[in-house]
Fold:
Amino acid sequence: MPRRPAPLIAAFLLALAALQAVAAPAPLILVSLDGFHPDYLDRGHAPTLRRLADAGTRAQWMVPAFPTLTFPNHYTVVTGLDPDEHGIVHNTMFDPALGEFRLANRAAVGDGRWWGGVPVWVAAARAGLRTATLFWPGSEAEIAGMRPHDWRPYDGRMLPGARVDQVLAWLDRPAEQRPTFMTLYFELVDTVGHAEGPRSKRLDAAVAATDRALARLVRGLEARAMLDAVNLVIVSDHGMAATSARRIVRLDRIVDRDHVVVRYFGTIVPVEPVAGREAAVAQALVGQHRGMRCWRKEQLPARFRHGAHPRVAPIICLADVGWTIADAEWVANNRDWRGGGAHGYDNHDPSMRALFVAHGPAFRRGQVVDPIEARGVHGVLLGALGLPAAAPVAQPARIEAILAPAAPPR
Ligand code: AMP
Ligand code: ZN
Ligand code: ZN
Structure:
């Protein structure tokens, strides 16, 4: 048999490499503005975000997953799964095998056994793409056997500008080390929303400061002639509702405090009856009270798609919008509290709506689409990266309306 001439093989390999270069997806940066209600866009303090939204695709709003808390929703965005499916059912939760999960508990947050599903950085890495996260819930844990190629332990003190500069530095790397999927996270709007409420002057200032960080990112991309070559998906995880010291439900006046374990007070309160007191606790709590409603986990309204996971406590109490569930100890520890803002309420309440903006070559330009669900964003991310979905994605029609039609093969 005649040997194949080497130059032919080399030409073939070159052509293959060229083809791959053509097919390589544009870098995708997933940005989270924690607690950013989409109405904030219309208050005149976010000119950069407004410009990106007008030039790209904006959803009227994003419907967060239930519960409308930070960890459950961030992880829904990157996995396409509801909290009941991915297992991060609350910011504070208990698992008989793993113990207690809290945001401040670094060991728990970094333990992959809490985190189900396949986050988009794992899907990207499996397809041979590099990934880098500048904070994202789940990014500190080894999930499905891996972490992002570059990641950092969460540090709320790292300045917004420094976070942006790190992402720009990643983009400056030589092609083989440059991440294709990146995340950026900003908590300031949420922090100030809690402290001062969603309609405060300081909230406007926090929106303006966060917008300046986005402007720094946009300027950095423009300086590299990359603004139209990079895909940006900018979301929030939930909105914010005004709370008040006059709207407090005292759980301990409804149920004997010694009959329940409660790890978290606020808007969505998981209640674990102690052994032998299950019936009495359910009897006292289940139903509507002034400022809150409680359900057995099996009887939560179907639209929450919540309650099947073993980590969901037997009884779930949900405050009415604007109310806070507390006990005597909470009140004693929060004597000076005059109210502010909170989330965790019903995910279909308008106050809990979240943000969705997409800008870049993968997305249609200059349109507003109908609301997208948090679990639908995953399909948008996979689409922008050119990755196939492992399972049917939520909201395929909405995703198609957001993604630019695929370029014809060259
Ligand atoms: P929430 O209690 O739902 O308002 O959570 C918002 C807070 O979550 C932020 O202010 C941060 O303190 C915290 N947080 C956000 N991302 C992370 C992370 N990756 N690791 C640990 N804590 C985080
Ligand atoms: Zn949040
Ligand atoms: Zn918050």
